[in-house]
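Notes for week 9. Today we move from apo structures to complexes. The key idea is that a small molecule is not decoration. When we ask for a structure prediction with guanosine-5'-triphosphate present, the ligand SMILES becomes part of the input, just like the chain. The input block below holds both the sequence and the ligand string. Read it once before you look at the output, and try to guess where the molecule might sit.
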Amino acid sequence: MRGKKGGVACGDHATIKTTAPGQGVIETIEPRKTLLYRSDAFKKKIIAANVSQIIIVVAAVPSYSEELVNRCLVAAESQHIRAIIVLNKTDLVEPTQNAANALSLYESIGYPLVKISALRNISALKPFLKGNLSVLAGQSGMGKSTLLNALIPDAQRATADISTALDSGCHTTTHSHLYHLDDQSAIIDSPGIQAFGLHHVDNEDLAQCFIEFRPFIGNCRFHNCRHVNEPGCALIHAAESGKISTRRLVFYQKLLQKN
Ligand SMILES: Nc1nc2c(ncn2[C@@H]2O[C@H](COP(=O)(O)OP(=O)(O)OP(=O)(O)O)[C@@H](O)[C@H]2O)c(=O)[nH]1
Ligand SMILES: [Mg+2]
Ligand SMILES: [Zn+2]
């Protein structure tokens, strides 16, 4: 980039002016189709530009955070980015079982849940990659870079043992990198994320980002219902009658307060 720093993200399309053989400067960045980012009150952190799909990578070891999964889903929905959940490390059979049970909720509301072992077999994921620009996102240590290496052995992404003492990853990947899979498909490996700020998602738009809430929105007694404790709330009623999950409604309400 000439002059202004930053501004360009992995996945951007740019026009470049060559200044010397093998060298150039970015002149312009084309308008973005999507922008996946997180934010707090002070700054925004871009994860990737122009992606059509986010692949949320989770594993039973180290334990994944359901809150982070929910936050990734909200960020994706707010940008109309397709989301799928990959449960990695299925070779760790016993711990994986609990995770699979907990994640079946997301499958039931419409998100594909793809179970793989990046170390042994990733074939279940391959059909989802066709025709997409995907980004691998998730906590440190879930196996994003291991998965990328399984897809593209030449990539030789650094991976690292998880620090089991802390039950967390150790932030091995520090920079995003895009890899082409074929003419129409590419995938981005990104650094592990610990916290996913959603300051940029307005409270009024939040309920729409919970896809299974959509059929009920608009049916509340009050048109400006926040779906917290209002009488005649269609979402609270839907949760009480088992049509939507209380877990997700509670998470929505929690997010509403924080934002
Ligand atoms: N048992 C098992 N271990 C795996 C699997 N996939 C990855 N791992 C291990 O998990 C650890 C972390 O993997 P990474 O690929 O570095 O994780 P990452 O998500 O890229 O982590 P960051 O770059 O820090 O965000 C490594 O020790 C991997 O060998 C798997 O399918 N099964
Ligand atoms: Mg990595
Ligand atoms: Zn309501």
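The longest helix spans residues 93-108.
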